[in-house]
Each structure stands twice: as C-alpha cells, then as structure tokens.
Design goal:
437 residues, 7-stranded parallel β-sheet, 19 helices, globular
C-alpha cells in the first residue's frame, strides 16, 4: 500500500508539472511549424482528441509499435516486416513523434499500417490513446521512457516491451532527477531487449529488475540492403562518369559550414569531386542548397534533376528513405551528427553497403557500434574538422584502404545479425498463434 501511495504521489507531481507546461507545447508546435509545415497539422493526435467514442467491447487486435523518428522507424523496419510476413492479418498501429518519422512510415508501408502521432505524456491524453486503440501489446523502440505512457499501458492491461533498447551513459545521467519515477515505470514492462551488455547494465542501474532485461543485439544489423541496389549505383555512376564522389550524410545545422569547408579543401586535390549531401532533416534541404550556391558551386537536387549532371559540384539528396542507396554510390562517407554533441547517427548503413566512413567524436548514441567498427578499423573517428578532412583526403587517395575498410564493415554487419530472430522469439507470447495453411 505504501508503495502504491508513493507511486501516486510521484506520478501526480510529474503530471502537474506537465499540465503546467501544456501551453508551451502549443508554442513549440507553432515554432517547429515555421521550420517544417507538417508540425501545423494533426494537432488532435498530439493531444489524443480522436473524436469517435471508443467501443469498450472491441477486441484487442492491434499491435502497437512506437518509433520516435526516422532512425527508430528504420530500426523497427526489419521487425515490422517480419511480423507482417508471419501474421499478415494482424492490424499494426505505428506511432511516431516527428513528421519525418511519419513520412518514413508511409514510405515503407503506405496504408498497410495505421499511423498516428504519439500523444504528449499527460494522463488524460495517455488514457484516451489506450481507450481508443486498445492495443494487444506495445513495442517501444530504443529509448522512449515516458512514465505516464508506461504506467498507462500497465493500467490498461497492455504488455509492453522496449526493443533495440539503448541507454547511453549521458542519457542515464539525464534521467537523474526523474530516476525514482522512471525506475517504477520501467518495472511495469514485460521486458527490456537491450542492444548490448553495457545498455542492459545501464537499464538495470536506472531501475529495471535484472530479470526484466535481456541482451538481444541491435536490430540495425538486420536491416537489409535496398532491393535493386546494384542497378541504382550503376545508374548513378553512369551520370557521374569517372569522377569520384563523397557523401556528407545526416548533417545538422551546425555542421553545414564544416561540410562546405571540407568540400572546398577536398576539391583542391580533386577538382572534379562531387559532394552528395544528405541533411538529416527536411527543413535543412533548402539551406544546404543555399550554402552550396553561396560557395559558388553548381547544385543539383534529387527531386529536381533526379541524378547529378557532369557539371554539377554538389548533389543534394532532398528525399527521405534513400540514404543507404546513396551511401553505396559514394567512394567515402562522412556521417554527421558527430561534430557537435548530438550523439552521431547510424554507422551500420554505410558499413552494410561497403562504404568506408569517417565521423566526428560525438558518438554517445552509437558508442557500442562505433567501438565495434573501430576495433576492426572499418571507421575512422576524428576529433575535429581538420582531422576529418585529413581522413577523407587520405581515403580518396587510397583505393586499397577503401576496399579493406569496406570488407571489414560488411563482415562486421553480417556477423552481427540475429537480433531480429531473437526479438521475434521474445514476442511470441503476445503475437497471434500461427495456424497451418
């Protein structure tokens, strides 16, 4: 009883703070909307105002998968695709928080899955979400630890898992103020399927019971290479001719000046070098074009010209869902989100398609993967822009080293597969019973 009282008090205080901050969410959506118009749409989903009254007697059919944005959706894709193959009649609800995540869901599955935005973590919205959609189980990808959401799932009888779970040392410190509440929320979970032993240890330190946590590996190792990749690369190369290309991928606003500087310096030795530039967020597509124009370069974009021309200096990938294919087109890659303390982005995508890569030092979101790639010398981790330039220039001049790094990366990815099959086995109790044909 005392434990229940403490939980109610902590949840109450946490929820009071969130209700007080609720007006700020409106300003946040407006502010983001000026940068990305999609934030002006579908506000009702953010507050779980769905309109139609739920049917209390409706069966719990839907499987709910939550993936906050593009990276998590991509990580979930092998799992969702496998569940769709094995259970083709199982309704799937996929929630995201960002419009780019929503767009990626539509790109991957169209209308074959239902998509809504996950509501804010206030009790009323969480209750309406579970009352309306009545999921049979919930699968949360990576590090979405919203206390009211997890308590709400328990209170509505929804067995919930965190899959591909990762928790950096930095994130663990960030939960310090809410640690007692988050610890109780974690104990409502059916299981935490951690990416690595270090992640598992940190989840236990945060408050999960040891018996709740298991190491499944990283689902990103199970991401297949895009279909028709060889043809895609051949078509790109037919427009490129004998020129070389490097890709600056998943870059953020604060890294754009560095990309311009890197391309200028690399072209001093390779005057016909093409930069393939794939910013992380759609609102940065236009600024990337503007930066390149301001540098005096001729720019093409994926949407307008489809492929780079012979006279183009920069090719901006202003689409979503094609990054892995464009990695394969490049001689060498720089993976962004790493020159600033953002935490890095997925290093397994260039490794899987055999592209040697260079990255900055800020990799706390991918520390385990970065270490494994570094151990086999499939990535060069540099401390600043000058060192990144030196590594890129060296690799552009050394075809033998590029090939060695490519082979090492592909081999590591192949050896790392298996998280998908382990995750499916873990989820067997909450998936429909497969019937013989």
């Amino acid at each position: 009883m005392r434990s229940d009282f403490i939980e109610r008090v902590m949840r109450g205080l946490y929820s009071v703070v969130l209700y007080a901050l609720l007006p700020i969410t409106v300003y946040h959506l407006i502010w983001r909307g000026f940068r990305q118009r999609e934030y002006f749409r579908r506000w009702n989903e953010r507050y779980a105002m769905y309109g139609a009254h739920p049917d209390d007697d409706a069966p719990r059919e839907r499987l709910w998968v939550h993936a906050v944005s593009v990276g998590e959706v991509n990580a979930a894709a092998p799992l969702v695709n496998a569940i769709r193959r094995e259970h083709p009649h199982l309704p799937l609800l996929v929630t995201t928080i960002t419009p780019t995540g929503s767009a990626r869901v539509r790109d991957l599955w169209g209308d074959a899955v239902q998509h809504v935005y996950l509501p804010y973590d206030i009790p009323g919205a969480v209750r309406r979400f579970f009352d309306h959609y009545r999921p049979r189980a919930g699968l949360i990808l990576e590090t979405e630890l919203w206390p009211n959401l997890l308590f709400g799932a328990r209170d509505h009888g929804v067995p919930t898992y965190i899959l591909n779970a990762r928790l950096s040392a930095r994130s663990l410190r960030g939960y310090r103020m809410l640690a007692p509440l988050v610890a109780r929320a974690l104990r409502t979970l059916r299981c935490v399927g951690a990416q690595s032993h270090a992640d598992a240890r940190r989840f236990v330190k945060l408050g999960a019971r040891p018996e709740q946590v298991t190491e499944l590996g990283n689902l990103k190792f199970d991401t297949p290479v895009p279909e028709g990749l060889d043809g895609f690369v051949a078509q790109f190369r037919s427009h490129l001719g004998e020129r070389r290309a490097w890709i600056a991928a998943s870059t953020h606003e604060g890294e754009e000046a560095a990309v311009i500087d890197l391309h200028r310096r690399l072209r001093e030795r390779h005057p016909d070098l093409l930069l393939v530039w794939a910013p992380r967020h759609p609102e940065r597509f236009r600024p990337a074009v503007d930066h390149a124009h301001a540098a005096g370069w001729r720019v093409a974009t994926r949407r307008l010209t489809h492929w780079p021309g012979e006279a183009d200096d920069v090719f901006v990938v202003d689409t979503l869902g094609e990054l892995m294919a464009f990695y394969a087109c490049a001689d060498v890659a720089f993976v962004g989100g790493s020159l600033q303390p953002i935490g890095g982005h997925n290093l397994l995508e260039p490794a899987a398609v055999g592209t040697p890569m260079v990255t900055g030092p800020h990799l706390h979101n991918f520390a385990e993967i970065a270490k494994r790639l570094s151990d086999v010398q499939a990535v060069r981790i540099e401390q600043d822009v000058d060192a990144v330039h030196g590594a890129l220039a060296s690799l552009l001049d050394d075809a033998v080293e590029r090939a060695r790094m490519a082979d090492a990366g592909r081999k590591l990815v192949e050896e790392g597969r298996g998280a998908l099959s382990r995750s499916l086995a873990l989820l067997a109790p909450v998936l429909p019973v497969k019937r013989d044909a």
